[in-house]
Amino acid sequence: MPKDAEPEKLTDYSEDGVDLTLIRWMLSLTPQERLEFLNERVNEIRAIRELNGI
Amino acid sequence: MEFSLPAILRALVEGRVEFVLVGGVAAVLQGVPIQTYDVDIVFSQEADNLTRALAVLESLDAVFRIQPSRRLRPSVSHLSGSGHINLLSKDGPLDLLTNVGENLRYGDLIGLSQPMRIGEGIVINVLNLKTLIDLKEQLGGEKDLAMLPILRQTLRESGGK
Q1: Which of B12, B24, B43 lies closest to B107, judged by CA?
Q2: Which tens digits make up the pLDDT trace of B22-78?
Q3: How many CA atoms lie within 13 A of A2 on its CB side?
Q4: Where do the structural domains in chain B lie, given as residue ranges?
Q5: Minimum Cα–Cα distance from B9: chain A residue
Q6: Is B32 helix (H, G, I), strand (E, B) or coil?
Q7: pLDDT at residue A2, rounded to an integer
Q8: What is the pLDDT of residue B161?
Q9: Could you tell me which of B24, B25, B39 has the C-alpha nearest to residue B90?
Q10: CA distance B47 to chain A (A)
Q11: DSSP states of B79-143
Q12: Residue A3 pLDDT
């Protein structure tokens, strides 16, 4: 690479504001792991809602 | 009691129900970082499949979600009709859809799905991300349009167009 060449610009967000780091992290998981992660969050959020009487 | 979305899918597979997973869980399985609470499936309305589906719904203790306290259970006539059947099972919310988008049914969607392994010996057909995006674009509601950027970016990051 020439000395004055610009390094590739790394960005965490797309132009429309989507967090690309989260997408890349999700894509690093297997489908089974993604489903387990989702299910854990569902139950955690339900528990918090119950704690708050919602 | 805790919900188990994997248990719902496992029961459907073990009960030999023919279905395609659509909606938010289908998106999550393909790497879209969103939160959702229900399992949405489009099921085959072949008579044998309705019998198998009813048996699984019974095992999941599924009742209509609109008034769960009344404990109303779906019947063959509900499953053989049209539209959406929104249920609450012992393992969480489960929506049975007879069609999506422009009247796309199980037979139309199975070829647009991909098998995905979600557990030991458990493989389900998941509607592909490109088609999920197409459906959201067709629906065009505020909630659907809001989802489009994250769905499209995930498709790009995963090597799709």
Answers
A1: B43
A2: 999 999 999 999 999 999 999 999 999 999 999 999 999 999 999 989 999 999 999
A3: 3
A4: 5-144
A5: A35
A6: coil
A7: 58
A8: 58
A9: B39
A10: 30
A11: HTSSSEEEEEETTEEEEEES-BTTTB-HHHHGGGEEEEEEETTEEEEEE-HHHHHHHHHHH--HH
A12: 58
pLDDT at residue number A11: 86
DSSP string, B133-149: HHHHHHH--HHHHHHHH
Q: How far lies B148's CA from each of B22, B49, B80, B136, B143, in Å?
A: 15, 33, 32, 7, 9
B28 interfaces chain A, CB cutoff of 8 Å: yes
pLDDT at B1: 82
Collapsed DSSP state (helix, strand, coil) of residue A52: coil
For chains A and B, CB pairs below 8 A equal: 72
- The answer to whether B13 and B124 have CB atoms below 8 angstroms apart is yes
Q: Do B33 and A38 touch (CB under 8 A)?
A: no
- Nearest CB among B29, B116, B149 relative to A16 is that of B149
* Closest alpha carbon to B129 in B113, B140, B149, B146: B113
- Give the CATH class of B5-144: alpha beta
Q: Is A48 on the interface with B (CB under 8 A)?
A: no
If you write DSSP's letter for every residue of A6-42 in order, what string do you get? Answer: PPPPP-SB-TT--BHHHHHHHHHS-HHHHHHHHHHHH
CB atoms within 10 A of CB B85: 19
- Predicted local distance difference test score (pLDDT) of residue A5: 63
